[in-house]
Structures are given as C-alpha cells and as structure tokens.
Amino acid sequence: MERLREATTWLCDMDGVLLGPTGLIPGADAFVERVRERGYGLQVVTNNSLFTPDEIVERMAGAGLTMRPEEIWTSAMAAASYVAAGTGPTRVFAIGRPAIHLALADVGCVRDPSTPEVVVLAETRDYDFDEFARAVQLIDRGAAFVATNPEATSPTLDGPVPGCGAMAALIERATGVAPYIVGKPNPAMIHSGLARLGVDAGRAVLVGDRIETDVVAGAEAGLTTVLVLSGVTTLEELGHAVVVPDVVVGSLAELISLL
Prior knowledge:
Elements: H1 2-6, E1 9-12, E2 19-20, E3 23-24, H2 28-37, E4 41-46, H3 53-63, E5 72-74, H4 75-85, E6 91-95, H5 98-106, E7 110-111, E8 118-121, H6 129-140, E9 144-147, E10 153-154, E11 161-162, H7 164-175, E12 180-181, H8 187-197, E13 204-208, H9 211-220, E14 224-228, H10 235-238, E15 247-249
Parallel strand pairs: 1-4, 1-13, 4-5, 6-7, 6-8, 8-9, 9-12, 13-14, 14-15
Antiparallel strand pairs: 2-3, 10-11
Helix pairs in contact: 4-5, 4-8, 6-7, 8-9
C-alpha cells in the first residue's frame, strides 16, 4: 500500500477497469478525478486495437467519463511505435481497422502491399481472405510479422468472435512464422507507454483486471500492480496464478482513499 501512496503515474486498463458491459464501472469517474486533482500522470493502456484514441474518448464520454486522446495508449499505437523504432519509417502491409493504419502513418510508416518490410496484423471485424492470402505470401517471402495483441476472442453483444490472436494463429500455421505480439503481456507495451509519458517505472502503477495480460506485463516492466475484481479475473483464479499482483481490490473505488 505504501508503494501506491508514493506513485505519481497510474496506468489503467480500459475494459473491466474503467468500463463494464453496461457502462461505467462505479467509482471509475471519481478515481480519474482524484488522480487529476493530485496532478498525477494518467494513461489508459488497452490491448484493444479496433479503435483510435478519438474513438475511445468518444466511447468513454458516452459512458460518462471524460478522457483526452493523449491519455490513451492502445496496442495499435504500441505496435506502430515498435515497428518504427528500429530503422525509423518502414514499409508495411497492415490488416485491420483504420486505427492501425492511422497509428502506422503517425510514426511515418508507408503502406506497401508489394515489398513491405513488415506485415502488421490488428483486430478487425472485416477479415478479408485476399488480405490474409497476401500476408501469408509476403511473410513467406521474408517480411517480418507483427501482431498488436494476443487475445483469441473479442467480445460482442452476440458473444465472442475471433480476435487478433486467433487470426494471427491462422497466418502462423500457414507460414510457420510466429508473430511478435506487442500488446500485453509483453512489457514492451508498458515501456513504450511510460516513455511516451517520460516517467520511471518505479513510481508507476498498473491497474488491470486480467492476471495473464495486465499483471504479467506490469510486473515484468517493473511497475507496482493492482488487480481489480470488477472485470475478468475472479478470486478463485487468483489462487492459481503464477504471477500475483501486489494489491487486490474490488474496483477503482477502493483506491481513491490512497491517492
């Protein structure tokens, strides 16, 4: 708890932490308000690569939570940052919604469906066979393979649908090449988010609702980790976890008194 009181930057997952299936999780707005009152850093760190920061801000506003685009860090943005980090602007062939294409363009990457250096796969609801066939061919010819996030399914009102992880497995099976997955639990996403804020991991906290992604990523990146039980992980599952969080609370509402 002492490490929480000394924290100056808070990284929060989105779904299950700030937002629930029917809207804002009780206490999330008060938590965000208190963080801002104290002058602490705040960043939403989400594996969701479907939406741009502006779209996420709009979604949160609809639930009653005011956020700013610069407070959003998605796996699409982290993947784009990773792709451009080595040699700078890179030729890419990307599959996904506008969020990944805009993120890649923002870091100077150039769309090249003929001779790309990297194939980038993100979440999408409009998977096209021809695009996947092209990705397989390009990777077979030597292009690197990067995916935004590992989730095998993505939730919808009608039930789960194939997610980025499942579609990455399709390409991997066809090519024999495993993707480099940038999103949580890869600590690279946390490191790039902290670099964007210009803060040190030692004074930062990551709050998430999934042990296998949020807690693992935060722990490996050197952050204090908080598991909230307002999302996916249950107390029963916590008892079987190999990597355990530093703190467990019911929801963000229980953290307000510590700020």
